[in-house]
Amino acid sequence: MTSPRQSSAIPSSLFTLATLMTSVPLSLLPTPTLSQSPDQCTPDIINTGCDPSNTTYCTLHCTLHGSTYLSDKCCKHYGITASLLAFEESALWIPRIDEYQKCTGANIRLQYVEGGEDFMGQALLDDVGESEDETTGQGIYDAYIVQAPWLPPVYGGLKSLSEYIKLNDEYINFMDINQASRSAVSFDGEVRALPLDADYIAMGWRQDVFNAHKDAYFEKYGEELKVPTTIEELVDVSEKLNGFDHNGDGEGDWGFCLTPQTNYFNAFLSPVMQTHLKECEQKGDGSYDCSRGANTGQNIFFDVDNFDPLIFNEGFKYAVELYTRFVQASNCQTETPAGQKCDRKSAFPTGRCAGVISMPGTLTNLLSENDSYSIPPEYRLSSALEPGQYHGRRARFPGSTKVVDWKIGGMPLVDCRGAVCPLAEDGINYAPFFAEGGESYALNGRQSKPSATDAMWDMFTWLAELPVGNIPLSGVYRRSQLTDEATQELAEMLNNTVMADDLHDVLVHFFKNDDEGGNQVQDLFIIGFDDYNDALDTELHQNLIMADINDGGLFDMANPRNSINSVTNKAEFDYRYNRFVEALARRYQEVNAKADGGALHQLYLWRGALDLRPAKTEFEICQDLLATDVESFDNLNCLNVVQLETLCQSQRSDVEEYAPGTCKTNNDNSTIIIAVLCSIVGAGVVAFVVYYTYKRYQNYRRITMAHEQLMESTLNEAIRALHQLDYPLHLIRGDEFIDEGKLIRHEVLRNNHKLTVLDSLSDVDAFITAGQHVVFFSHQWTSFTVPDPSNNQYETMCISLRELVKQNGWSENLKDVFVWVDFSCIPQANPSTQNLAIRSLAAYASSATYFIIVAPDTPHADLDDTCDLDTYQRRMWCRAEQVCHSMRNGTSGMYLAVRKDNALIPVISDFFRESLRVFEGELTCCRLEHKGTSACDRQSLVIPLLGLYGELYRAAKDGIKGGNAEALSSVEAFLKEIEEHQESVFPRTFQRVTWRKNKRYTEEVVLFGDLIDRMKYRIDHGIGFAIDTENTGTVSSKGSEFIRHGASDFLRHGVVHGASAHNQNVTVETAVGTLDDHVDK
3-state class of 109 per DSSP? Predict the structure, then answer.
């Protein structure tokens, strides 16, 4: 499984979840029939009915895998649809959902985030919304597969599962789940997700390599080659095995392998930094009891009292020293200088690794007999294995003989013994690092319907009762899965007793509760997880360990064996290390500064994530710091939450020491102050009245001037927009469009070089002049996440395209016909480039030589509704596309495709009349009452339509010089319709409903205001409409080029608009800012 620590920066916002999702629709009830449609990667399973009285059927389908939870839930959720959002595919999803739906009658729709884990965190935030803001979140999905690092920003929007678990703990057995996974999903004392997996760092080692080299190792080093039990031994053995031949090719190979990630550094850091989670008492026999003590607050990231990063201590440096040496003896010594990614997954199959450190799922694949990541038989030293031995072995991650002493200032590095290291085993402190927490199941707590929530919870509970091998994306995560019987079942599933026994031995230690001596290290589950992690990754790997020595790093690219470390060149290592920790501290401060509430709020969240008791508010944290650590009191900006005067009674000495005089009484002074104030009030009132009147007049003049400037800027933007593409026009050739068999995502076509790209409007003009035909398909999406899940619209497109070719006598090979359709021609994965393309949508529509409305009767996949020509015409964006084409080209090249048997029908000449009322169309943002955003899509169309109107009005005034009577007639028909219905075609204002701080607001917002009148005035007086043409830079104000296919004078899709501000109760928003932006302050 890919770690979030591998990912590049996640986009801060996504245009819409629908642009990121790849749908895997499933709908099933009893008596299924399977059908594979060309645009789906899994089959649809269609139900024909559900009868709970059919005991034979119910027994068959509701008692699978030894589970009894569903035995009384046959057909319980019949007719209920629920959606599940996931990030990683698993072959087990389809059979499990199939079984669940056959029993309960639910319709579970599974959808994946494109891009996997790297984008799931943002997708979760977009759909659930921010934890502390109930007005955010799109609310498309009912349930989610999550990892713990994604939960802090959203947990308030997830349903608390605590009561659900209490009611169903007979089946869930929550306390049987390992403690680290339970802690990772608990916030504010509530469980927000159900863990069905566990992620941690473990060590893999090769039995064949250790057997083969044991004699040569002893001869060379004078010591026995043993499996490492400490991080010191792990580094030492890895360095000494570096250069031995591990795959029989006669060449020297590496030590242990890894992918340099912060997960694996944290695994080295954990046994040095964290020794016990609870205070311990020494018993009479010298051992320690840590089952009843208070929380120690130990962790590997930040001090729980002041949020100082735990990097300025000997323990952190010790871990960096060992980790650096480990990396330098690994596969990185060869892969990095060669310009390759240093990656355990590519290195291990070469047979050159003596061992590996990894997460559990990947480690199983690396050590298995036959997997894409495992070592092929020809690269193993199998002859060195004894009977019953297996080459791929697993062990718990090593501990440390050195630890920090938390009770001494500066946290010095000491030997692991006595009260400092109460959980030690033979002088070794073990502290397994549970990275990211593993997969868990969460419910939408805000927008999901109760029936959908119940259906998803029943499925989660059922999965929790199943054997681990039957659960998607799961590994061993329960203590009960470590019994001898469970281990034997795992051995049968893996077909490998050694691997099952090794896993059992590792997890017996890792799954200990803290009252049993467990010492699991928790990941940094607070808001900003990715930013903190990126800071550490950048400074540790990119700027220190993996950076060339000539660039201030430790790695010698020319000769890796000369790389700098604490053994080869301690003085130079120390110098570069000190620069590293200073840089890391600055990066952490930057992350804190970006967080809401700063470092103080982050400290509050971190204490909550560690479940420290007693819990403290931010005020109480600062109150304690005032008494114990004034420097941290200042660093955390505690004066933002604490008024010192309120502490004068309880902490008078602390307050006076910090701010002398704060707690003194001021009765005498107050008497004098009152007398002085009374003497000046009379004169002040007179002066104030004069001053206030003058300032009101000045303010009026500023607003008036700003309004004029804002309106003129908006008009200029509308005119400029006519001659520019913000994003190139992408087209797919007609024959390739039909050969694909379905609508193909833009990125797939791009990567396969099947898109024709026109960068500018002059390119478009030349392209059409050369005899190419551009067909614009306008359609309504029939699903929230994919455009055409039934493939019905695509098939209609293909039939209409062939019919258009036939009617015009073009070549039937379709190589001169090029198609534009949104899903294929607008970026779907990158929100930034997608937004640029959408801004150019009007230009795309108006540049097409033919415009086909595709609206066959098609059921909407996510709504109980049928999409047809009527629903198409009601959509604002569909109307906008029609208007953008017809205002430039008329209606002669526009067609309807509503039936497969007669797919191409010319539109009637006055078809434009209804679509011209663009702003009366329906919008999803308005239906959702703009939750999570204040802008309305109506506003984004003002600029392009204002520009089009201006050009239309100019063309009529000029009489379309050089044009024809038909063209002039079309222009006049448009203008006549607009003139008669201007208030509905170009509304001055509109009512916008928004939600802010859980309150519903209705406000009147300017749309066009007086912009239409201003545009007319400009053209009537011959001012302000001249523009530079795209290529020559010469001024053009002609109307002769207005109505023609592919003309160079056309528009692009605009941005937010501007208009009148005369009504002070109307909100003004513009293409070039707000009214306030133009007021001279």
Answer: strand
